[in-house]
Here is the input.
Amino acid sequence: MASRVVMPKLTDTMEEGVLLAWKKREGDSVEAGEALAEIETDKAIMDLEAFASGILRKILVQDGATVMSGTLIGVIGGADEDITSALTDMITAAPSVAGAKTSAPAAGPVPALPANLQGTRVTASPRAKAFAADLGIDLSTITGTGPGGRIVEDDVTKGKAALKSMPLAGTDQPLSQMRKAIARATTQSKAPVPHFYLTSDIDMEQAERFREKFKQNRTTHPSITDLLIKVAAIALTRHPDINVSFTGQAIRRHARIDIGIAVGIDDGLITPVIRNCGAKSLGDISTESRTLIDRAKEKRLQPQEYTDATFSISNLGMFDVENFIAVLIPPQAASIAVGAIRDVPVVKDGTVKAGRRMKVTLSCDHRALDGVQGANFLKEFKRILEHPSELLQSKEAS
Here is the structure.
């Protein structure tokens, strides 16, 4: 029986994907689980795997095309099999799955993309897209010289030269898949979710000394963000009413503490998640976060590695940002934004001394949390950072 290959819907935020390149051609043999194509989702680049064995009988979407999730992009079948019925509907619903697998038909159609509109999309190589984005060049203004009119890097270079001879004007930069996802997620969060914010100024002298001891005694040492993750995990363990989600009909208390780390990349933001932080040591968190952040920057995370955080941390201190607020991304009911560690004058016992301070702002979903709950959590978060030796003494830090 012919197997329909569709653009998967890997996350709730994914509405479309880019087929970067087919790894198989029409007529090639395919084994179940073998990589068929490389696709770009709203958060990552990954392989699209075959759901069944057979021969790739038909390719319906060419390299570089952007198509809706659920769109039929190919058909796998026997060498002499009639695949007419598999080609009848160009769109079929694709379920949300944990990996980049192709899918058999699912019940219920999704809105169809007219076939004649697919041909109007700009087709360009990944390198050409990245180069054009860096230069702020609209790909729709460039004529492609690659196969099938595909825009290649050399076309962008020629387009840049042509722009230099034109009067100065603005250009529209097409939205990347990630930027589209961020626009949808933040709009859906900020508009309906009633946010409130709590800011605290934290003495970081002891925390910095604590990190220096790690630098002296170990080949690797935790970053400030790693320290913040562990401190947040301990504080959430002691204040489980913060590690919750508003479901509409109830407040769900999560059994695990899964903390997301906001990571900025070229075309947007991704939040890799460290699972079960309450049960992990600072060293374990440091090792895992380093690996996840590196893979996030390469767009090689799987959907289960960047979804469903129960709490998140966004640190812009390395960019010399003193203070900011974070937008909540469901299912989180709280998220903390971290600013730079600053040299400031501090009055203590009537004397002005030099101090090291850091501002943090807790964003809260008022449907699930109240000010006192947020304040108590933030007080504990601050207390642990100002007395970091507790990280080595407490049961939660093991």
Remarks:
- The first strand starts at residue 3 and ends at 6.
- The chain has three domains: 3-115, 123-164, 179-397.
- The first helix runs from residue 115 to 118.
